[in-house]
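in:
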């Protein structure tokens, strides 16, 4: 039985999925790779199949897909990895050490891959906010013991802020291990909508979410890059 199960939710990620999964191949003796696809039409499933243990089609929605992947996972530790995020080479030993030190869940610091001069500032603020708040984002490669994940009921079935809500649930059982080793993730959203605009939009959506706004409504604004 594998020690770790890496679960990758995908939707039209043919351009990224090989780069995500290829570095994991040398660890396959104790690592299980599951791709949970939301109905891609660009060949994502076919590209992932030779590099994954399981490729399943799940109801569309990142939370639903990750829950579906977790539902068939055999590992004792679940790692939720976005298709445009790359784990550092020593990710698994670091996770193992954190768990042996008593942590039950955690995340990595993040580095944004892009050329805009503000991206390092954005990443640093994300890492600091996460460390102070105990809230992790999906870009930070959240890891959690299977036991704790099942205990809190997995990801909430909502289309946005699912990582924040999961962190809230997990935080009731202890703060996260904040690993300073960095995962590298794409800055494509910041570059597409503009760095300043995206920062402002994300803070605005988070504020509205904390004030009780409907996640469905917030998800539409997020996808369109709009405030209203």
């Amino acid at each position: 039985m594998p020690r770790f199960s890496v679960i990758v939710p995908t939707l039209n990620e043919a351009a990224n999925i090989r780069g995500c999964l290829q570095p994991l191949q040398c660890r396959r003796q104790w690592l299980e790779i599951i791709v949970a696809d939301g109905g891609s039409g660009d060949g994502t499933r076919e590209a992932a199949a030779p590099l994954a243990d399981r490729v399943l089609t799940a109801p569309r929605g990142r939370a639903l897909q990750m829950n579906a992947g977790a539902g068939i996972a055999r590992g004792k530790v679940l790692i939720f990895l976005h298709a445009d995020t790359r784990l550092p080479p020593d990710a698994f030993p670091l996770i193992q050490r954190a768990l042996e030190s008593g942590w039950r869940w955690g995340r990595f610091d993040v580095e944004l891959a892009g050329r805009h001069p503000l991206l390092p500032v954005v990443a640093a603020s994300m890492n600091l906010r996460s460390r102070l708040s105990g809230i992790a984002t999906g870009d930070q490669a959240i890891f959690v013991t299977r036991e704790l994940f099942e205990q809190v009921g997995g990801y909430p079935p909502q289309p946005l802020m699912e990582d924040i809500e999961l962190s809230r649930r997990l935080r009731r059982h202890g703060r996260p291990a904040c690993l300073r080793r960095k995962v590298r993730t794409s800055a494509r959203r910041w570059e597409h909508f503009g760095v300043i605009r995206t920062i402002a939009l994300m803070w605005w959506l988070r504020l509205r979410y904390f004030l009780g706004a409907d996640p469905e409504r917030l998800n539409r604004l997020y996808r369109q890059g709009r405030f209203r």
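note: The mean pLDDT is 93.
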